[in-house]
Amino acid sequence: MANLKFYMTPGSCSTGIHILLEECGPVFEVYLVNLMAGDQDAAEYRSLNPKGTIPTLVLEDGTVLTDFLTITLWLAETYPKRQLLPEYLLQQLHLISIVNYVVNTIHGQGFTRIFTTDKYSELPAEQERIQQQGRKIVSDGFELISGWLGQQEYLHETFSIADAALFYTEFWAVHIGLTLPENCLQHYKTMLKRPSVAQVLMEEGYGKMVAEAIKL
Fold first, then answer.
1. How far apart are CA 95 and CA 47, in angstroms?
2. Is the pTM value of this prediction over 0.70?
3. 81: how many CB neighbours lie within 10 A of its CB?
4. What is the predicted pLDDT for the residue at 94?
5. Which CATH number goes with the domain that contains 36?
6. 161: exposed, middle or buried (C-beta count within 10 Å: 0-12, 13-18, 19+)?
7. CA distance 176 to 169
8. Nearest to 100 by CA among 80, 143, 70, 65
9. Which residues pair with residue 155 across a beta bridge?
């Protein structure tokens, strides 16, 4: 039987899926996609994922999953003993909505303006405004997440798909020096102590950052 094939970029949103894969424990092969080199636009990759995005997960039967939420839901359904989603539908929907918000708003609207400003405008005079707009979207997003998190260790009673999504954006925020709400920072530090998270970040080349972040 073929292994799962996981296409990812270290330090990207695919880090969240990498963590979930380690939590679930399947055998999988990793294929690196160098976004800076334009690997996502290569014909071979586009034939697999026409959107040219990451992460991509190829299942054992050849089915290709090409977005963060779809992959998380497949993992939650396939590995129910990991309890990546709660038992009750309304609780599931709440966590799914958080994943959607993190991926599509905090990441998709906020961090993209910070990291890929040129896609919004090539005019130098517009760069600072766009970046500031992105930082506001991200900051406002974390404030909303902070309210949902409250004083809980995780976004639900136990670790879930939503925590993996939140973590990769917290990771980015810490990396660029953006101040997180105190409970989000605590969530980030809690995640760093999970063996799967520490292992993934070490494998992706961020071991030093992990050691420094734990001291925050």
1. 32
2. yes
3. 7
4. 97
5. 3.40.30.10
6. buried
7. 11
8. 70
9. none
Task: Tell me if 85 sits within 8 A of 97, measured CB to CB.
Answer: no
- 130 and 41 within one domain: no
Poorest-pLDDT segment among 8-12, 115-119, 124-128:
124-128
Q: What is the pLDDT of residue 122?
A: 87
Instruction: List the 28-32 sheet strands across, edge first.
Output: 28-32, 4-8, 56-58, 64-65
- What long-range pairs does 181-184 form, CB within 8 A, spacing at least 24? 181/142, 181/143, 181/145, 181/146, 183/146, 183/149, 183/150, 183/151, 184/142, 184/145, 184/146, 184/149
The amino acid at 144: L
Taking residues 82-111, what's their average pLDDT? 97
Q: Are 61 and 39 in contact (CB under 8 A)?
A: no
pLDDT exceeds 60 at position 1: no
| Whether residue 206 is found in the same domain as residue 103 | yes
Q: For residue 160, what is the domain's CATH number?
A: 1.20.1050.10
Looking at residue 207, its pLDDT comes to: 80
Encoding tokens for residue 24?
Answer: 């679930």
Residue 104 CB partners (closer than 8 Å, separation 6+): none
**Domain identity same for 106 and 166:** yes
- What percent of the chain clears pLDDT 70, i.e. is strictly above it? 96
Domain shared by 66 and 153, yes or no: no
